[in-house]
Specification:
Radius of gyration: 16 Å
Strand content: 25-35%
Shape: globular
Distance between the termini: 21 Å
Oligomer: single chain
Helix content: 25-40%
Number of strands: 9
């Protein structure tokens, strides 16, 4: 498992050995706002284990995930609601979301959609993928390689909850800003 610093995007591996591999099921536990007011930590915990992933996500995506966790319905469809409806209208279903890679300290994800006999793998940001999965009632998985490279233990997560949550990104994009 990584250290608490890994949760803040400071010590992530450049890559987790490619995308895919053996998957472990994750549960969306919480969205924790960061002090910058512009981003949050998405807390994903391994269902049958101790690993926790904490990708940094933008405020709009955090709001969409928080609403889905509360089962709140906005007066008009949000982007993730629209996407879920479009997939359904086209005869598809969201089967699962996979957080399946790391590149330059950024988590990568794939949305798996079934449309009749056809299977589609759609590259997406983890934040959008999780927001969509929650609306579609689809499970979220993470590659074991990603969990090993960037995961925290549940005790690390408890330390995070007690510490101030400072932004995990540098102020200038040229220094390797991590945004999901």
């Amino acid at each position: 498992m990584g250290s608490v610093a890994a949760a803040f995007g400071l010590v992530l591996a450049a890559a987790a050995g490619g995308r895919g591999g053996e998957m472990v099921e994750m549960e969306v536990v919480a969205v924790l706002p960061l002090e910058d007011g512009q981003s949050s930590l998405l807390v994903l915990a391994q269902r049958d284990g101790q690993a926790v992933l904490t990708p940094v996500i933008g405020r709009p995506e955090a709001t969409a995930i928080e609403m889905a966790l509360r089962h709140a319905t906005p007066p008009r469809p949000m982007t993730h609601d629209l996407l879920e409806r479009v997939i359904g209208q086209l005869g598809g279903t969201v089967e699962r979301v996979e957080i399946d890679g790391l590149a330059d300290s950024t988590f990568l994800a794939t949305v798996r959609v079934r449309q009749g006999k056809r299977a589609h793998a759609i590259d997406a940001r983890p934040s959008d993928s999780v927001a969509l999965a929650l609306r579609a009632g689809a499970p979220v998985f993470a590659s074991r390689r990603v969990v090993e490279a960037a995961g925290l233990s549940r005790s690390d997560l408890e330390k995070l909850r007690r510490e101030p949550r400072r932004p995990p990104v540098r102020e200038t994009p040229s220094e390797g800003t991590q945004r999901l």
